Amino acid sequence: xxxxxxxxxxxxxxxxxxxxxxxxxxxxxxxxxxxxxxxxxxxxxxxxxxxxxxxxxxxxxxxxxxxxxxxxxxxxxxxxxxxxxxxxxxxxxxxxxxxxxxxxxxxxxxxxxxxxxxxxxxxxxxxxxxxxxxxxxxxxxxxxxxxxxxxxxxxxxxxxxxxxxxxxxxxxxxxxxxxxxxxxxxxxxxxxxxxxxxxxxxxxxxxxxxxxxxxxxxxxxxxxxxxxxxxxxxxxxxxxxxxxxxxxxxxxxxxxxxxxxxxxxxxxxxxxxxxxxxxxxxxxxxxxxxxxxxxxxxxxxxxxxxxxxxxxxxxxxxxxxxxxxxxxxxxxxxxxxxxxxxxxxxxxxxxxxxxxxxxxxxxxxxxxxxxxxxxxxx
Length: 378
What we know:
- By secondary structure, the chain is an alpha/beta fold.
- Helices cover 41% and strands 17% of the residues.
- It has helices spanning 16-30, 71-91, 109-116, 134-154, 163-173, 213-221, 239-245, 261-268, 285-292, 322-334, 336-350, 355-374, and strands at 2-6, 34-38, 48-51, 54-57, 96-100, 120-124, 157-160, 178-179, 199-204, 228-233, 253-257, 273-276, 296-300, 315-318.
- The strands form two sheets. An eight-stranded mixed sheet has the order 3-4-2-1-5-6-7-8, with helices on both faces. A six-stranded parallel sheet has the order 11-10-9-12-13-14, with helices on both faces.
- The longest helix is centred in the first third of the chain and has 21 residues, at 71-91.
- The chain starts with a strand and ends with a helix.
């Protein structure tokens, strides 16, 4: 198949949704499909390049930062990316179009698909669905939800990265998507070994209001008399405030900044549990990675973590208060037998998130969209 991918975020631009898209595109290219991506260009990035067998087009979008995108910058992506998408649809003649994120990337899909007379598939991630990240997108969807709903309902196929995101999209737009869980390449199961030095915790992600790192520090301060350490992987706008809040926990918290994948995996291999104090999540890749490393997960009681945490089996779902998180963390610190059992349960759950199964699922959906176009009514 020839697949034209629209995604306003593609590495090094964006977060987990962009990284998932890139891995999917490279894996599909490795299976013999031709993949071209139209994404947002930044001044310091080449306008066209090849990565992992994927042709990437980056028309200048006027986006200022790799890690954040405002609503006006999303609109500029639509304006600047549309000519490139239309040209590729007309001249390259793809078999199918795949838009990641209903808004904004999906807004390009109907026009581009019509130009090339091709079907389009839309994948919802979280912030592109009403109710996913309300603090950031409530205003956007008050205006854009009717357009997003039209794009969603007229797609050849629709998918979502988690059951929570799928439920939000179904409630908003009246069409249930296929849920394709994010996965990662399988790794050999590690040996579960606890440290005699106490509970080894890991926090991974952008230090932003969505991840709520301040709640993590406030929770740990309540159990300062327990034996634990925390490695923080990531940076962001709340980084300085998080460090200031942790001033009384010197020596217990190690600040790692952003690390390459191998660095993250090395720290996961030495950790016992992943701490996730997020306000919202779709299906966090850090949690999926944690399952494959056999980590217990202590997370917020939010819909986006329901696919990765089985309460009291491989971790805890906590109310978003310092007391609730502190109680769960103290239980792990005080009960090594329970900790070992939860870590083993995470390994048992990891098989649901094999990335090759993720790729195969998307491959089937894209193929079905092409087949339905060639053989309408079947």
